[in-house]
From TrEMBL:
Keywords: Membrane, Transmembrane, Transmembrane helix. GO terms for molecular function: transmembrane transporter activity. The chain crosses the membrane at residues 150-167, 174-195, 201-220, 232-255, 349-367, 379-402, 409-429, 435-455, 494-514. InterPro entries: MFS_dom, MFS_sugar_transport-like, MFS_trans_sf. The keyword Membrane applies. It is a multi-pass membrane protein. PANTHER family: SOLUTE CARRIER FAMILY 22 MEMBER. GO terms for cellular component: basal plasma membrane. Residues 552-564 have a biased composition (Basic and acidic residues). It comes from the Eukaryota. Residues 552-571 are annotated as: Disordered. It is found in: Basal cell membrane. This is Solute carrier family 22 member 6.
C-alpha cells in the first residue's frame, strides 16, 4: 500500500487533477528558452554612409537616377562568394563607376576599404528592433550576441541547482509561486534595460526563475497523478511547450520589437502567480517532511473537488500511517545530494540521466538556436513547433507500449542518424537539409518529453527535486555549450553535426542502462529504488527471506523461534 492507492481512492485522475495539470501547463505557452532567436535576431545591415545626399549632389546625381541597390554599390563592397553587400566594410571613397555612373578622367584601381567607422544601417523588414541593432552587436561584437543566450542558460543552470534543493526543503508550491513572480518582475523590467550589461543581468535572473518554474511544475504534476496516467499526462503537458513555440513565432512576427516582445511573454506571469495560490502542495512532500496533518488537509481538499466527500471521514492519521508507514519513517532521515550517488542503483540512474539530459539539450539547442541559416526565421520557428506534434504523438505511443527506456534510447539514436545524414547533403539542396533538421529537432524534442517524465519516475520523492535539479544542471551545460560548437564550422563544416550526433549516440547507449518505470508506482524512498531495480539477485532474495522470517515470527509459537533465529543468522 502506498500513496498511489490513496490517489485511486480519492478519485484517481479526477476533476482536481485536470484543473491542476492544465493550470500548471499553461505557462508553457509562453516560451522563454527560444526567445533569444527573436530578441537577438540579426537584421540585414551594412556600414552607415554619412552625408550621402551631399555626395550624390556633388556628382549631379538625383535619387531618380539610381536605385537603392545601385547607390549602395558605390559605397559598399560586394562579397564575391555570396554576391551580397559586405556587412563590416565600406569604400574609403565612393566608386561611382560600380553604380553605373559615367565618371570621366578617373583612373580605376583596386578601391581601398575601411571598417564601419560611422556605425551601421539596419534593415527593418525582418525585425524592427533587436538587441543587435540596439547595441550594434555585429562584426567584431557579434560574439556578444551569442553570449546573451549563454548567460541566460547560465541562469537556468544556477536555478536548477538552487531551486532544486530549496524546493525539497521548503516545498514545491512556495518555490513555484516565487519563481512566477521573479520571472514576471524581472522579465518585464528587461524591456527597460539601457545597456547590454543590464540586459544580460536581467536575463540571467530570468533564467533562474524559468528553471524554478519547470522543475516545480513537473514535480507537482507527477506527485498528484496516479501511476497509470503518468505517461499520458506527461506527454500531453509537453504539447503546451509545442504550441508555445508556434505562439512565440506569431507574437514575434506581429511585434518585431525586442522590448515589446519581452513584455508580451513575461507580464502574463503575474496572472500565473496569482492563480497559483489555488495549487495544493504535494501531499507526498508534506508527509516526507513531517507535516502529515497538513497532508491530510490537502488530501481532503482533493477528495472534495473530485466528488469523493465520503473519503474525508475515512482518511485520518491512522489511515495515512497504514498506507505510508515507510515514507513517514523516512521523514526522520536527512537527505543530501550525496544520496544521488551513494547507493549502486541511485548511482547508475544519476550517471545515465546526466548523459541523457546533456546530449538531449546539446542537440536540441544546437538545432533550435540557429534558425536564420535555414531561411525565414518566423516560418522556421513555426515548422519547428509543428513537427513536435507528430513526434510527440509517436513518443506517447512508444512510451505506453514499449516503455520509457526503449523510447528514450530510440529518440536519441534516431535524432543522431538525422543529424549525421545532413553531413552528406550538399548545401545546394537546402530544402532537404531543412527537412532533416526539422525532423531531427522533432526527435530531440520527444527525447525531452521522455526524459522529464522518466526522471520524475526514477528518483524517489525524498530526492525527486534534488535529482531533477542535479540532472537538469547537465542539460543547462549542454544548452550553454551548443552555440559554442557552431564556431567549429570554420574549421570543418561537418564538425558541429559530428559533435551533436556523436553526443546523441553516446546518450542513447546510456539510456539503455536505465531501469524501466512503465506502470511502476513512484518510489518514495532510496530503499524503494534499491529494492525495485537492484540487478543483484541475492539482494532481492534476502529481502524476500526477511519478509518470510518476519511472517513466521508472527504466526509461529515457541517452536518457530529457533527456526526464525537460525534463519536470520544465516542471512
Amino acid at each position: 500500500m502506498g500513496f498511489s492507492d490513496i490517489l485511486d481512492e480519492i478519485g484517481g485522475f479526477g476533476r482536481f487533477q485536470w484543473i491542476h495539470v492544465i493550470l500548471l501547463s499553461i505557462p508553457g505557452l509562453l516560451m522563454q528558452n527560444l526567445l533569444n532567436n527573436f530578441t537577438a535576431g540579426i537584421p540585414g545591415h551594412h556600414c552607415a554612409i554619412p552625408n550621402i545626399s551631399n555626395r550624390t549632389n556633388d556628382q549631379n546625381i538625383t535619387a531618380e537616377q539610381l536605385s537603392t541597390d545601385q547607390l549602395l554599390r558605390a559605397f559598399i563592397p560586394v562579397d564575391k562568394r555570396s554576391s551580397k553587400f559586405t556587412k563590416c566594410t565600406r569604400y574609403v571613397e565612393p566608386q561611382w563607376h560600380l553604380a553605373g555612373v559615367n565618371i570621366t578622367g578617373t583612373n580605376f584601381t583596386e578601391p581601398e576599404t575601411e571598417t564601419c567607422l560611422d556605425g551601421w544601417t539596419y534593415q527593418k523588414t525582418e525585425f524592427i528592433s533587436t538587441i543587435v541593432s540596439e547595441w550594434d552587436l555585429v562584426c567584431t561584437l557579434q560574439p556578444l550576441k551569442q553570449m546573451t543566450q549563454t548567460i541566460y542558460m547560465g541562469g537556468v543552470l544556477s536555478g536548477a541547482i538552487i531551486f532544486g534543493g530549496l524546493s525539497d526543503k521548503f516545498g514545491r508550491r512556495a518555490l513555484l509561486i516565487w519563481s512566477y513572480f521573479q520571472l514576471a518582475v524581472l522579465g518585464t523590467f528587461t524591456t527597460f534595460a539601457t545597456s547590454y550589461v543590464a540586459y544580460c543581468v536581467l536575463r540571467f535572473l530570468s533564467g533562474m526563475a524559468v528553471s524554478g518554474i519547470i522543475l516545480n511544475a513537473v514535480s507537482l504534476k507527477v506527485e498528484w497523478i496516479p501511476t497509470k496516467t503518468r505517461t499520458l499526462v506527461g506527454t500531453l503537458s509537453s504539447f503546451f511547450f509545442t504550441f508555445g513555440q508556434m505562439v512565440l513565432a506569431g507574437v514575434a512576427y506581429s511585434l518585431k520589437d525586442w522590448r515589446k516582445l519581452h513584455v508580451a511573454v513575461c507580464s502574463p506571469y503575474f496572472v500565473f502567480a496569482l492563480y497559483s495560490w489555488w495549487y495544493s502542495e504535494s501531499a507526498r512532500w508534506l508527509v516526507l517532511n513531517g507535516k502529515s496533518e497538513e497532508a491530510i488537509k490537502q488530501i481532503h481538499r482533493v477528495a472534495r473537488i473530485n466528488g469523493k466527500p465520503e473519503m474525508v471521514e475515512k482518511i485520518n492519521m491512522e489511515y495515512l500511517e497504514s498506507h505510508m508507514h515507510k515514507e513517514m519513517q523516512s521523514s526522520k532521515t536527512t537527505h543530501t545530494a550525496y544520496d544521488l550517488l551513494r547507493t549502486p542503483v541511485m548511482r547508475r540512474i544519476s550517471i545515465c540521466l546526466v548523459a541523457v539530459w546533456f546530449s538531449t539539450s546539446f542537440a536540441y539547442y544546437g538545432l533550435a538556436m540557429d534558425l536564420q541559416k535555414f531561411g525565414n526565421i518566423y516560418v522556421m520557428q513555426l515548422l519547428f513547433g509543428v513537427v513536435d506534434i507528430p513526434a510527440k504523438l509517436l513518443a506517447l505511443t512508444m512510451l505506453s507500449f514499449l516503455g520509457r527506456r526503449i523510447t528514450q534510447a530510440s529518440c536519441l539514436l534516431i535524432s543522431a542518424v538525422l543529424i549525421f545524414a545532413n553531413i552528406f547533403i550538399s548545401q545546394e539542396f537546402q530544402t532537404a537539409r531543412t527537412v532533416l533538421a526539422v525532423l531531427g529537432k522533432g526527435f530531440t524534442s520527444s527525447s525531452f518529453t521522455c526524459v522529464y517524465l522518466f526522471t520524475g519516475e526514477l528518483y524517489p520523492t525524498v530526492l525527486r527535486q534534488t535529482g531533477m535539479g542535479f540532472t537538469s544542471t547537465m542539460s543547462r551545460i549542454g544548452s550553454m555549450a551548443a552555440p559554442a560548437v557552431l564556431i567549429l564550422d570554420e574549421v570543418l563544416p561537418a564538425l558541429p553535426s559530428i559533435v551533436y550526433g556523436g553526443a546523441a549516440v553516446i546518450a542513447g547507449v546510456f539510456a539503455l542502462f536505465l531501469p524501466e518505470t512503465l506502470n511502476v508506482p513512484l518510489p518514495e524512498t532510496v530503499d524503494d529504488v534499491e529494492e525495485k531495480w537492484s540487478k543483484k539477485p541475492h539482494v532481492q532474495k534476502q529481502i524476500e527471506k526477511e519478509s518470510v522470517a518476519l511472517q513466521d515470527m508472527k504466526e509461529g509459537g515457541a517452536e518457530c523461534e529457533d527456526g526464525k533465529t537460525s534463519g536470520l543468522n544465516a542471512l
